[in-house]
From TrEMBL:
The lineage of its organism: Bacteria, Pseudomonadati, Pseudomonadota, Alphaproteobacteria, Rhodospirillales. One of its GO terms (molecular function) is DNA-binding transcription factor activity. GO terms for cellular component: cytosol. Keywords: DNA-binding, Transcription, Transcription regulation. It comes from Skermanella stibiiresistens SB22. This is Crp/Fnr family transcriptional regulator. The keyword DNA-binding applies. CDD domains: CAP_ED.
Amino acid sequence: MKDGEIGEAWKGPTQCRNCGIRDLVLFSDLRLMDFSLIHLPIDELRFKPGESLYHAGDQKPYLFTIREGTVKLVQYLPDGSHRIVRLLRQGAVAGMEALLSEPYAHTATALQPVLVCRIPRAVIDRLSGETPRLHTQLMRRWHQSVRQADDWLTELSTGSARLRLARLLLQMTEATDSDVCHLPIREDVGAMLAITMETASRTVAEFRRAGLLTDVGDHLVRCDREALEAVVAEG
């Protein structure tokens, strides 16, 4: 975890029980008595944009819950190129391969400033053995990750560059429940949509000229959702 700074090691289960986003995270279904089963520290880690939680091929006994910010999952291809295969936001779980003692399949990198909880696999193993509530939540997370991967492939890898970008922006505004969202750099946009950086830059510029998105801050844009939905409807 050399790329991240440990803000503080959590002092046992009390912090988890009182977590401000507990209803969104992996432990959301746990009852008060379940937290007494947590005997290993769950560390709080901060990452700057561009820093990695873990790399593809790493084999470490940790899962990560995203508390703040957005993490991109990157797949590196044999030809040296890469694809962003998914974005993980608040409440999502990264590194579930660790549950099977498998190497991480992707590189998880902070797209914006990120705060995560690093959960030892041993904590999950014990809770899964002692309470069915966590097992149910884990199955729900596995299903969610498969569905998101399918949706990503279907929506962001097919159609014209305009259509893909419109779908991406709608996804990002839906995730924030706001017309304002974080606009990734053109390299990341290209890697998400399977288009070249030049095409990504040209399409974003076209959307700006047409008023579909307006800059409101550092990498923040306000999206005209109605106009973006019209682009999607046109196909």
